[in-house]
Amino acid sequence: MKIAIIIPARYGSTRFPGKPLVPINGKAMIDHVYDLAVKASKGYKDVQVIIATDDERIEAHAKSQGHDVLMTSDTCKTGSDRVLEAAVKLSDQPDIVINLQGDAPLTPLSALEKVIREFSANPEARVVTPVQQLAWNDLDKLRRNKETTPFSGTTAVINKRNRAMWFSKNIMPAMRKEDSYRHGGELSPVYQHLGLYGYRFDVLKKFVNLPEGKYEEIEGLEQLRFLENDIDIQCVEIPHDDIVHSGVDSPEDIDRAETIMRAKARVA
C-alpha cells in the first residue's frame, strides 16, 4: 500500500499572510508539520511526505530544508483540490492520500497514526478521519467558544460501525436529559471532528469532481459532500485525554502554539 501524505500550504492567507513560514520556537510552521508527518510514517515502507504549494517562497524554503515539495496552480479552490493536483503529479501514484493541513502543527500524532493504521487494517475504508469524544469540561468549553465564534469547532455523529452519519457546526446530538448523562460518567456523548483526512486515491479524484453539495454549502463543511453522495467516511477515535488544539489561524495564535509545544517537549 503506497501512501502520500500531502501538506497543502498557501502563502496568501487573508488573515495571516505567509503563515507557513512564520517561526514557531525558532522553526517555520511548515517544518513542524512536515516533521509530524515523517514521524507518523515511521515503520511504513511506502510513504511519501510532500508539501504542495503555489508560492515560490514556500517552495524555496522547503527545498532548503530538504523537504519534498511540488508546485501547484494558484487557482485551487480548496486544500483538497491542491492535494489532488500534487498527487496526480507524483511519478509513483499512491493508493492512499492523506491531507494534512500546513497550518496544523499541533495535530496530535495519534490522529495521523490512526488514520494510516485504519487503511492498513480496513480494506473497505474509502475515507478516514479522526474524532474525539469530549469530556464534559471540554464540551462546556466548546459551548463557550461558540457564544463568540459560532462556527468554531465541528461535531460528528457516528454509527455503531464508526462511520460518520453527519457533521455539523452545531453541537450534536442535542440532549433533552443532559443532567442524567452528566451523572453517567466523565465523557459526554458529543464527538468533535479533527480536520485531517485520508482518502483512497480514486475516491479523492471522484470527490474533487463532484459539485458542491447543498448541505456542504449551508454548513460550510466540505466533508458533507461525501455523505451527500453516499461515500462512507470511516471515523477513528483518538483518546479523549490526548489534548486537541486548533490550528494556527492568526498572529495571536503563535504565542499559544509556542507555549503548547514547549510544554509537550518538557513532557517528552
Nutshell version of this structure?
Helix content is 37%, strand content 22%. It is an alpha/beta fold and 268 residues long.
How would you describe what is shown here?
This protein is α/β, with parallel strands linked by helices. It has two domains: 1-106, Spore Coat Polysaccharide Biosynthesis Protein SpsA, Chain A; 119-244, Spore Coat Polysaccharide Biosynthesis Protein SpsA, Chain A, CATH 3.90.550.10. 37% of the residues lie in helices and 22% in strands. The chain is built from ten helices and twelve strands. It has helices spanning 29-40, 56-64, 79-89, 109-121, 136-148, 178-182, 201-209, 214-219, 224-228, 253-267; strands spanning 3-9, 23-24, 27-28, 47-53, 69-71, 96-99, 127-135, 155-158, 164-168, 187-193, 197-200, 234-237. The strands form two sheets. Strands 1, 4, 5, 6, 7, 8, 9, 10, 11 and 12 form a ten-stranded mixed beta sheet that branches. Helix 1 runs parallel beside helix 4 (109-121) and helix 3 packs across helix 7. The model has no long low-confidence stretch (mean pLDDT 92).
